Amino acid sequence: MYRMISAMTHATPSPLDTLEKLTVFVVDDDISVRESLELLITSAGLRPVLFDSAQAFLAASPIAGPSCLVLDVNMPGLNGLDLQCMITKSGNRTPIIFVSGFGDVPMTVKALKGGALDFLTKPIDAGALLEAIQSALAQSEALIRAEEELLRLQACYDALTRREREVMSGVVKGLLNKQVAFELDISEITVKAHRGQVMRKMSARSLPDLVNMAAKLRIEDGREVH
């Protein structure tokens, strides 16, 4: 890889450090690689969490917050590609960076098609790896923000009454108030009142804003599409 450096003893991070630092999981059966990666990741102000096998990673308790996974391909037992497949099937969206001393084109293609962010072959340039890690962590942060926003929108939508959801459905489809009133067999004044409530409860600043929220919630005909 890059120049191997003997393992250093790091103090156990305080709870505050744990909250502030981004996590980089490393799964590699080579202890010298793990030690070298630990030092590199720590030097970048990130928190490394090391595993010597895919099985150990799967058995570990999850850690909240932005993270990425630096994963060796060729390991005894469960290999990196197998682990990637299991992670994907579980719904875990942690960005993965593969590293391998025996990379070939078919292996690289399979990893990238499986959703890997990058595939680096050993010996790995430390700068290239850190760049890939920063990109992966930025992606993880964006995913977490998007999930938090979706949960917020879902909570707002759940607070709407049945009629308000019906009015919202018509509005985001581009119907005029009088058209929504005709479809629901209610007065246009009632539609306007419900529309105002929808905008308030959803914290929508404008109609395009509301349409964008509906798209994120995958709302169709007043129902959330799963």
Explain what this protein looks like in three dimensions.
This protein has helices spanning 15-20, 31-43, 54-59, 80-89, 105-113, 126-158, 162-172, 177-184, 188-201, 207-217, and strands at 23-27, 47-51, 67-72, 96-100, 118-121, 219-220, 223-224. 54% of the residues lie in helices and 13% in strands. Strand 1 (23-27), helix 2 and strand 2 (47-51) form a beta-alpha-beta unit. The chain contains ten helices and seven strands. The longest helix is centred in the middle third of the chain and has 33 residues, at 126-158. It has two domains: 15-148, 3-Layer(aba) Sandwich (Rossmann fold), CATH 3.40.50.2300; 159-224, Winged helix-like DNA-binding domain superfamily/Winged helix DNA-binding domain (Arc Repressor Mutant, subunit A), CATH 1.10.10.10. By secondary structure, the protein is of the alpha/beta class. The strands form two sheets. A five-stranded parallel β-sheet has the order 2-1-3-4-5, with helices on both faces. Strands 6-7 form a two-stranded antiparallel sheet.
